[in-house]
Amino acid sequence: MKKVIQYLKEYQKEHFNWEMYSVILLFCATCIFFNYRYDFEDGVIDSYSGEPIKWLWMFLFHGTPFFCVCLILYAFGKKRDWLTSKNYWIKFIVGFGLLSFDRSFYGFEYLLSEVPRMEYPFVIRCVNWASSLILVVIPMLLLYPLLEKDNHKNYYGLVWRKFDARPYLALLAIAAVFIGIGSFLGDIQDYYPRYRTAGGNLYLRDNPDLNESWLVLIYELCYGSNFISVELIFRGFLIFAFSRTLGGYAVLPMVATYAFLHFGKPMGETISSLFGGYVLGIISYNSRNIWGGIFIHLGVAWLMELFGWFHKL
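The chain above was modelled as a monomer; its predicted structure follows.
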């Protein structure tokens, strides 16, 4: 825990600026208000599901907050070289292109069209959660040698180097307290556990002899695998790839973009993602790996599921 606190102190000392942080926070708050007031992501962007143009919508949706916070950094004179950097723009297109492809890809619906009707909802939900390993993680690792000309080859923080889980256990214990308190909120209780809306009950109708606990286990493993790609993109790529042009300030546009990822979830979870993303980003930037973020993110996700189950007992 001392190491984590040291990371936070060092980062604040070097990068914190009241006025700049206030403007970034105001930008994020405005975007959150607009989305939840007008149901932008669910009502507008998701209406294009299954259509190729959704890729463009998702590219603009996730690329805009990153770019806007970079402009704020530029306005405050913190980092300005990125605007004319070829390296920045290539990685911007590649990174947000892959993220958008992952969030708009609908090919599995066709590939799995022969799955029995009652089993299909559960199968496609599990496949969609786990698909990021194929659509994001593998391509990003393959592209790494082309995008990063270095000798360290840490693959955006995925290389396991002296990872110590103890500081993250302490953070997870603290998070568990707040998750437990927050789980009493109505919108969170309505949203979790995610398994309830995964179609497991329909699957069991065609397979009455199957123990439902196996379905829960399969679903939660697929659900959890998605967070590996989330950490690779947000705490890995968006920090390590852009730190060449933005330095440590790369954490800040990542945080805004990470909040947008949570649009469609309960608003309290979106707001908390600003603070959680900020802390995890600083840890990733200083430790040079994303395993702490993966550890905490998986823990938080499964704790949300666990508390959701408790409230359904």
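The mean pLDDT is 89.
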